[in-house]
Amino acid sequence: MSDRRAAPVPPPDDADPVARLRAIMRTLRDPAAGCPWDLKQDFASIAPYTIEEAYEVADAIARADMGDLADELGDLLLQVVYHAQMAEEQGAFGFEGVAAGVCAKMIRRHPHVFDHGPDGRDADGQTVAWEAIKAAERAAKEREAAGALDGVAAGLPSLTRARKLQARAARVGFDWPSAADVLDKIVEEAREIEAARGDADALEDEFGDLMFVMVNLARHMGVDPDAALRRANAKFERRFRAVEAALAAQGRTPTESTLAEMDALWDEAKARERAAAGHGAAESAGAKPR
């Protein structure tokens, strides 16, 4: 006979959903009756899943799939509950502390809503005010920090972390004066990549420098580099699938075609997209399609 006791029955379906989810997580992490896999996990082992779920939320949004979005938001909520449960087991903080903290932050960052009522600013004005409040909060933290770059999480995706590191450095005056200066630097870094060919380590180093400067250009131009790359990925996937479909209609596959043939089909797919985009813009402006 096993000494393992039966797991507690989770709250019924009609219980408060968040309370039910937290009870389920407590059961999964129960030392005597929980799941061996869940009991083995810690913050570091769960962090990659947290990042993955955030990206899956972004993907559902990009696809405008509300069903998937609801599902992926649930998965992301599970990650919050998971980390909070592990922290509670260590006596660090709990789910209530996480929720209370973000409530206080939202009220603190929206004084025009919760303290004094509407102040007439538009959305852009509120963005400026929000950033000013965040800057004051950061300044208070930075007075306790050793350097301007402290607090930029090492586990962030590389593009996001590059942008945050650059923004931190810019706040203390270490920044290119203009986007034109960054463009000049991109040309310089591209030449250095060419010079590094044949040396794998140097090539990787120079390629990283070029990507870092590209992120800097995006920051100067107000572009989210991660969103831009996701958009480029989606565009490439869409057009390449169109090439595959065109070849399939001819009874062929990409491996049975030449690069020139695929390039021509790619250009056709690109032209169709642009024509469709122009047609949509004309209709939205009230023009009649010809």
Automatic annotation (TrEMBL):
InterPro entries: MazG-like_dom, NTP-PPase_MazG-like_C, NTP-PPase_MazG-like_N, NTP_PyrPHydrolase_MazG, PRib-ATP_PPHydrolase-like. Residues 277-290 have a biased composition (Low complexity). Residues 270-290 are annotated as: Disordered. It comes from the Bacteria. One of its GO terms (biological process) is response to stress. Residues 41-114 form the NTP pyrophosphohydrolase MazG-like domain. GO terms for molecular function: ATP diphosphatase activity. Its EC number is 3.6.1.8. It catalyses: ATP + H2O = AMP + diphosphate + H(+). Belongs to the nucleoside triphosphate pyrophosphohydrolase family. PANTHER family: NUCLEOSIDE TRIPHOSPHATE PYROPHOSPHOHYDROLASE. NCBIfam families: mazG, PRK09562.1. This is Nucleoside triphosphate pyrophosphohydrolase. The lineage of its organism: Bacteria, Pseudomonadati, Pseudomonadota, Alphaproteobacteria, Rhodobacterales.
